[in-house]
């Protein structure tokens, strides 16, 4: 998978992309990431990338010509790529969307800045607009990094077999159970007895119940979509939870 990222702040990407799984994906040749400074595609003396909105209002917009030139140029390097724009108005990023994007031949990601970009860039070039959640960021760069990270881990071969087994745990749509390592008592807190019992069936049951309890407490919205058994529903009912799938 090739990622081309168009941004006014390419230096922001150094840390996250030079470490850990994204680093490994690049080293293995499974992903390629190229950063492009949008300002390099200006032709005026002041290298202007922003302008005031027609109709007035606070703030500035990214002007269309440098973005257009940057996109046209990068499309030649990443043929058949899907063009994404990070924006608060976009489709919320979920594991399902990351899965879909991981199947694309390539991605071009435009990082929004200021109050947004000229609407004609959306119309001409953008295939999908993506948000990473309902909170306000200062620009699209951090969102682009989150997107690259979530997609990279799904590219076959990037994760080791140990790590990729973990990706499945999103599978039933429940939160993870609590986990413990040694020592058996820490700061007066014991490891729950079922985990020390050596009884595999008891461990499995305890973990499942903890997942269900946590999900009911913290993310009740997930229970309407979760894959549940009759036994799961019975346990949830014993907790007083009934609005489930
Ligand atoms: C006048 C309203 N503006 C400021 C509150 C709207 C606005 C414009 C640009 C708010 C944030 C931004 C910059 N954010 C992004 O570019 C962005 C973003 C986000 O803020 N939250 C979640 N996902 C994303 S993806 C890109």
TrEMBL record:
EC number: 2.1.1.228
Catalytic activity: guanosine(37) in tRNA + S-adenosyl-L-methionine = N(1)-methylguanosine(37) in tRNA + S-adenosyl-L-homocysteine + H(+)
GO biological process terms, semicolon-separated: tRNA N1-guanine methylation
SUPFAM superfamilies: alpha/beta knot
Chief location category: cytoplasm
Domain named tRNA methyltransferase TRMD/TRM10-type: residues: 1-224
Localisation per UniProt entry: Cytoplasm
Keywords: Cytoplasm, Methyltransferase, S-adenosyl-L-methionine, Transferase, tRNA processing
UniProt GO molecular function: tRNA (guanine(37)-N1)-methyltransferase activity
Residues noted as binding S-adenosyl-L-methionine in the record, renumbered to the chain: 112, 132-137
GO cellular component term of the entry, any: cytosol
Entries under InterPro entries matching the protein: Alpha/beta_knot_MTases, tRNA_m1G_MeTrfase_C_sf, tRNA_m1G_MeTrfase_TrmD, tRNA_m1G_MTases_N, tRNA_MeTrfase_TRMD/TRM10
Subunit structure: Homodimer.
HAMAP family: TrmD (MF_00605)
Role according to the record: Specifically methylates guanosine-37 in various tRNAs.
Homology family: Belongs to the RNA methyltransferase TrmD family.
Protein name: tRNA (guanine-N(1)-)-methyltransferase
Source organism of the structure: Trichlorobacter thiogenes
Protein's gene: trmD
